[in-house]
Amino acid sequence: MLEHYTVSRRVFLTFNYVFLTCLGIICILPIIHVLAVSFSSSAAAQAGYVKLWPVQFTLSSYDYVMHKPAFFKSILVTLKRVGLGIPTNMLLTVLIAYPLSKEAKKFPMRTFYAWVFVVTILFSGGLIPLYMTIKETHILDTVWAMVLPGAVPVFNVILLLNFFRGLPKELEEAAFIDGAGHWTTLWRIFLPLSLPALATITLFATVNHWNSWFDGLIFMNSPDHYPLQSYLQTVVINRDLTLMSSADMKSLTEVNDRTAKAAQIFLGALPILLVYPFLQRFFMKGIVLGSVKE
Amino acid sequence: MFLKKWSGQLPLHLMILPGLVLILIYSYGPMFGLLIAFEKYVPAKGIMGSKWVGLDNFRYVLEMPESTQIIWNTILIAMMKIVAGLIAPIITALLLNEVRKEVFKRGIQTVVYLPHFLSWIILGGILIDILSPTNGIVNQVLGWFGIKAIYFLGDNHWFRYVLVITDVWKEFGFNTIVYLAALTSISPTLYEAAIVDGAGRWKQTLHVTLPGMTSIIVLLVTLSLGNVLNAGFDQVFNLYSPQVYETGDVIDTFVYRIGLVDAQYGVATAVGVFRSVVSLFSISLSYYLAYRFANYRIF
After folding, report:
1. Most CB contacts within 10 A, which of A42, A87, A239, B245?
2. Is residue B31 part of a domain?
3. How many domains does chain B have?
4. Which residues of chain B are within 8 Å of residue A191 when distances are taken between CB atoms?
5. Is residue B5 part of a domain?
6. B30: which residues sit within 8 A by CB, 6+ positions away?
7. CA distance A229 to A212
8. What is the CATH number of the domain that holds B166?
């Protein structure tokens, strides 16, 4: 089909391309600006000379951040929570999604179980009672306080169970005729067929764990146990001077607060920025995944 | 027969068990803890030992001078976000839909979707830097046009708008992609038929594209109604300061301050109960409407 562009159509298309380009630029401009600040000398940053390119290029703020023990400690805590949290999330998501994807005829308790999980989306005890529950179960100030309360990501369960339901029923029936039980069917039939869905959910869960900060802030007693995002909250947003050693204070006067903050912001976002181009395709598929239902 | 049926389902029960236990402890456990909203709670005495005071905590909250303002702030900010968060992605999706160059389309999608994956800590740090009244880049640019520096994050006049705009910045890319996915499922034959009937581009958008999006728009509108009391704790908490409590303090930040900072557990939980109950109704209603009008089922 040939398209004949009228004058008004061409004007619109030009405007459209310009507008969308501007929109895209506005979305990432703030990030580029902060990146430029982090590579600039403190004097230039302080005087406001930095726009979108570093002025008087220097790595001193990165040098300063890299020599901060607290920064490294918090990265280790984050790695620990991601390392424990993702397997927990994934295992539970799969184990819950499989039975719930069965028809009520075959698994009468299904509807009851499903409601037990869905109610947690509708209603929650809120902040203070959750804090107390965590305290009562003796996981306050341990990494488990950041893993167990969110161990069952209900939205991911729903996503995966809808995906499972979309798989051909004949496969399951064939497996059962061949003598496979539920465990074998899940492991040998469902999981291999669900790799794209599993990848999406793993990524959701990983980003979620990497970005979480509030649980670390309130469930950890000592700043030594803060994950990276909670630590960044205290230094970048809510600068807490009590968390700084005297050596930190001294070098801060040399490095300048603004460039050091910029460097830490950028380092905190870096892992996501690095994997993002590869991941976003998965995410785009993942959004659509749960929306197709019988 | 019964035994056989039951043992066939046993593995299914076993699979659910671990997750069920965790949900019971960490989601249902705190619901039991809501009892302290009706107590003068003292941690040392525990939930069972603390003194029962009935509705005193609720009365205390209602008599606080700031409570009306906080509820108003919450609803206003949440509603503005809902409206802006619906319109921006629809427009972007419609404009992107007109683009024929796939590379350009994908590039823009990638870029606008990016902020969604960064935490409010990262974005908050960036915003505090660029909106600074002394050396922030936004105020520098305004300065070129002769506009005096504005303290966006410390000015009650501006704060709510900053919240809404920055929230749209973070989230509109996500919904844009949902809408675009809906647009790709519109059958090309509909457009061809419209062209045969003499419809121009504008008429095609009006009579083919928009109706094709209606069901997904209705779905997202109804689902977003569940957020009327959700002003976005992460964002507000990382951007606000005492100067803007008047316009920016919301229920969730208030609960945090009186509960964890002032340690008034009973009072904070009472506010939490109020929020949870209203949310229960609004979210249930939104799911019901989504089911009724967009044929949406959660599972």
Report:
1. A42
2. no
3. 1
4. none
5. no
6. A124, A125, A126, A129, A130, A132, A133
7. 7
8. 1.10.3720.10
Whether B279 maps to a domain, the answer reads yes
pLDDT at A292: 43
The parent domain of residue B83 ranges over: 66-294
Under CATH, domain A63-289 is a member of which superfamily? MetI-like (1.10.3720.10)
Encode pLDDT of B99-131 as tens digits.
888 889 988 988 998 899 999 999 999 999 899
Contact B26 A148 (CB under 8 A): yes
Q: Is the torsion defined by CA of B66, B71, B72, B78 positive or negative?
A: positive
Residue count of chain B: 299
Share of chain B above pLDDT 90, in %: 35
Sign of the alpha-carbon dihedral angle for A144, A148, A149, A150 = positive
Q: Which residues pair with B51 in a beta bridge?
A: B40
Q: Is residue B108 part of a domain?
A: yes
Tell me whether residue B16 is exposed, middle or buried, using C-beta atoms within 10 angstroms of its C-beta: 0 to 12, 13 to 18, 19 or more: buried
Contact B275, B74 (CB under 8 A): no
Q: Which chain A residues have a beta carbon less than 8 Å from that of B125? A: 34, 232, 236-237, 261, 264-265, 268
Under the banding of pLDDT at 50, 70 and 90, the label for residue B2 is low
Query: Measured between CB atoms, does A131 come within 8 Å of chain B?
Result: yes
Find the residue in B nearest to A233 (Cα). B121
Three-class secondary structure of residue B233 per DSSP: helix
**Confidence (pLDDT) at A248:** 52
Please name the residues in contact with A158: beta carbons below 8 A apart, sequence gap of 6 or more: A290, B298, B299
Q: Provide the 8-state DSSP code for B148.
A: P
- As a whole number, mean pLDDT of residues B153-176 equals 92
Q: 3-class SS at A4?
A: coil
Using an 8 Å CB-CB cutoff, list chain A residues near B129.
33-34, 37, 258, 261-262, 265
State whether residue B275 sits within 8 Å of chain A by CB.
yes
* This prediction's pTM: 0.88
Residues in a beta bridge with B19: none
Return the structure tokens found at B258.
């009186």
